[in-house]
Design brief:
The protein has two domains: about 200 residues, 3-Layer(aba) Sandwich (D-Maltodextrin-Binding Protein, domain 2); about 220 residues, 3-Layer(aba) Sandwich (D-Maltodextrin-Binding Protein, domain 2). The protein is α/β, with parallel strands linked by helices.
């Protein structure tokens, strides 16, 4: 197995269209070769012949999976390439696909971004390789995220069902109960900040993923997609629930104006000045490594609800493995994709800290009984697994969600630094997204 960085790999591909995301509606330079004919016999023959499989991914747990795959199939060489995290990879990936060369055999693609690769058929439908048989093996939320029109465009790698992380030490000191509703959350924010003006219930400077996840949980469905026919509407009931609550926090200056993943954010989590996080179940590893000094202070609880007594959650993060149409070794690529996301490969990744998308791992006694020293010995996976079972259905992203997210701070983000309300900011985000969609060949409804 070889592990490379992107430096020097792409060369002139970077000078292709400044925003190759536009290929999503206008068609791709990659020829659609039609349905793939593949069978277990084809895949086994490919494994016997061997060859190289280039994998673009940033997920560190894949290193061990690649080593295990090469041990099982010694004629296959897995070349792991860190082509950048998230959207930093997607531009080079689409450039390589458009150019017809330089694309990997396997690519890690987050769920929110997958649509821009499926709309122009730049990733393989994995159904002919036998991917449909794994439908019941994954949680419904992750399987829905990689399928459509009877096609399987990728296999889920992990998931991010949301939970509520809170600093128990801070809550106990100020006599604050763990909120079970978002109304209680606002009251907790007020109590904590009044008790100590240095304490904020959370941080927020405007984050597209966090915003859409909470709207998702609230029942909002601002995006509807049917091929190139899309709807963008940030004025539905669920979105209004979110904006009404979050506007109170912004107006009363109850959230810290600190960016997530910044040094100041880690410091706030460590010293208790940022008291909670509403985020995906992949967060424990980040707390353990980045906020080690607060070990024992933090706990996990179910996500607060918009209506008392409900259990609805949403996803925040998570990614898949897809096979680009331009892949050179598609049978081998699929074999590795299946190995990495199911069975022993999935369990290997979970053992290294990845949060599972597979039902078997989610429901295993070993997983559910795991005690987290960081959370005072709490069996936090039980809360995460319950959240995974209660993710709201029928959520969808735009086929150009990567672009939409990139302009969030220039539109909705103004609500955090100017008198603009969050509702008006989301309307500006909607308008800009609609304009972009229409300019690039989509039929866009509002």
């Amino acid at each position: 197995m070889r592990t490379l960085t992107l430096r020097g790999l792409l060369g002139p591909l970077a000078v292709l269209a400044a925003l190759s995301l536009t290929a999503t509606a206008c068609g791709s330079d990659t020829e659609d070769t039609g349905a793939v004919s593949a069978s277990p016999m084809d895949i086994n023959a490919a494994l016997e012949r061997g060859g190289k499989v280039t994998v673009w991914a940033w997920e560190p747990t894949l290193k061990k999976v690649a080593e295990d795959f090469e041990k099982k199939y010694p004629k296959v060489d897995i070349e792991l390439v860190n082509a950048g995290t998230g959207d930093k990879q997607y531009m080079p990936l689409q450039n390589a696909i458009a150019a017809g060369n330089g694309a990997p055999d396997v690519a890690q693609i987050e769920y929110y971004a997958l649509g821009q690769f499926t709309i122009d058929k730049s990733v393989e439908d994995l159904s002919p390789y036998g991917a449909q048989r794994w439908g019941t093996s994954f949680t419904s939320g992750t399987w829905d995220a990689v399928t459509g029109d009877k096609a399987v465009y990728a296999l889920p790698m992990d998931s991010g069902p949301m939970a509520f992380f809170y600093n128990k030490k801070v809550f106990d000191k100020h006599g604050v109960k763990v909120p079970t509703t978002w109304d209680e959350y606002v009251e907790a924010a007020r109590t904590l900040h009044k008790a100590d003006p240095k304490i904020f219930i959370t941080n927020d400077t405007g984050d597209a993923g966090a915003t859409t996840s909470l709207i998702w949980q609230a029942g909002g469905r601002p995006y509807r997609t049917d091929g190139t026919d899309v709807t963008v509407d940030f004025d539905d009931e669920g979105t209004r629930k979110y904006t009404a609550t979050w506007q109170k926090l912004l107006d009363e200056k109850l959230v810290a104006p600190i960016s997530t993943w910044s040094d100041a954010w880690y410091k706030g989590l460590a010293d208790g000045s940022i008291a909670t996080l509403s985020i995906g179940a992949w967060m424990p590893a980040n707390l353990t490594s980045g906020v080690a000094s607060a070990s024992g202070d933090w706990r996990v609880a179910p996500l607060p609800q918009w209506t008392k007594g409900e259990k609805t959650t949403a996803e925040n993060g998570g990614s898949s493995l897809a096979v680009p149409k331009a892949a050179m070794n598609k049978e081998l690529a699929y074999a590795f994709t299946e190995f990495a996301t199911t069975g022993a490969g999935a369990s290997t990744r979970v053992a290294q800290g990845a949060f599972p998308a597979t039902r078997t791992d989610l429901e295993s006694k070993a997983f559910l009984d795991t005690k987290f020293p960081y959370f005072g010995g709490q069996q936090a996976n039980r809360i995460f697994a319950e959240s995974a079972r209660n993710v709201g259905a029928d959520w969808s992203y735009l086929p150009f969600q990567v672009y939409a997210n990139s302009i969030f701070n220039d539109t909705a983000g103004k609500a955090y630094v100017t008198p603009t309300t969050l509702a008006d900011g989301l309307k500006a985000w909607q308008d800009a997204s609609v304009t972009y969609g229409k300019d690039h060949g989509f039929t866009v409804n509002e």
